[in-house]
Design a protein that fits this description.
CATH class: Mainly Beta
CATH architecture: Beta Barrel
Oligomer: single chain
Shape: globular
Low-confidence stretches: 117-122
Structural class: alpha/beta
Mean pLDDT: 82
Number of domains: 1
Strand order of the largest sheet: 1-5-2-4-3-6
CATH topology: Barwin-like endoglucanases
């Protein structure tokens, strides 16, 4: 079976348990690791020919990032991605707050492609 080169997904950034309990400050290697890890449905990973640790590029009108991906097992439905809030996920959020002071940060449409290079680099 030939791997698909790109696909559109819905990205859901959010807080992880690790962010609130064990990663230290935002300059720590642990924090950078948690916020640069994309969780994916295992069926989506298989369709794209990806394995845990593969580098992927997420792109939308606001920006693009390169992160590592891992299987979310039964946590996510097909077509939905999860990444922890952090510098990388912020690059994909627009600046419009609709008067709330918080930009839209859920349900972000992104194009995912297989990438090379180092996580977090553009």
């Amino acid at each position: 079976m030939k791997a698909v080169s790109s696909q559109v997904f819905i990205l859901i950034p959010g807080r992880t348990t690790e962010q609130g309990t064990s990663v230290g400050d935002k300059a720590s290697p642990e924090y950078r690791s948690v916020t640069r890890l994309l969780r994916m449905n295992p069926e989506d990973m298989a369709r794209l020919g990806l394995t845990d640790g593969a580098q992927v590029r997420l792109r939308n009108a606001q920006g693009e990032i390169v992160v590592s991906c891992v299987s979310a097992k039964d946590e996510l439905p097909p077509g939905v991605l999860f990444i922890a809030y952090g510098p990388e996920s912020s690059k994909l959020m627009g600046g419009e707050t609709h008067g709330t002071g918080m930009p839209d940060s859920k349900g972000i449409e992104v194009e995912l492609t297989v990438a090379g290079g180092s996580p977090g680099r553009e």
